[in-house]
Amino acid sequence: MTSWHMKSEKYATGGHRGTVEASKKKLSWKGGEFAATRMDAADQVKLVKVMGNHVKAKQTHAHTANVTNPETRKTMKMEITWVHENNANRLFTRRNIITKGAVIEVSLDGIKAFARVASRPGQQGQVNALMLPSTFKPEKMVLKEEKAQNTKTRKTAKTAKRTPPSNPKKEA
To answer: Does 166 reside within a domain?
Structure first.
C-alpha cells in the first residue's frame, strides 16, 4: 500500500490545523512501497519508476553483503547467514528483514562475523555493511547470558545452607 507524506492534521500543541484541506493530494506527496528486503538464497532487485523520470533499484531479497573491515579498510563480499537484531522493528528480526542499522551475521569460508548494515537496501539496491569488532555480542545474546547467570545464582542461593547471623555483643 502506498503511503502519503502529508502534513499532520494537528499542530504540535494539539490544536487542529485549519489549512490541511487547502489543497487535495498532490502526486509529489506520494511515497513508495516498502521493499522489506528479506534474507534469501539469491539476490533479487526490483526496478521501480520514481519521480523525475528516474529509476530506483529496490532489493527485495538479499543473499550477500559488501562488508568493509574498518581496521584493514578492505571490502569483501560475504554471505548473509542471519539477522540478529533490527532496531527499526523487533518483528523484522523474526522475519529476517534487513534495513539500515540491522545487525547481521555474515560468513566467508566458514569464518563468521557480525556486521551493521550501513546502506538502505530498499532504496539503494544493495547491502553494504561495516564489520563489528570481534568482542561485539548482539543484545539478544547478552540478555540470554544474563538470564542464565541470574537463574544460576538463584539456584545456588536456594541450595546454600543458611547460617544464623552472629551477634558481636554476645561474643564480647
So the answer is: no
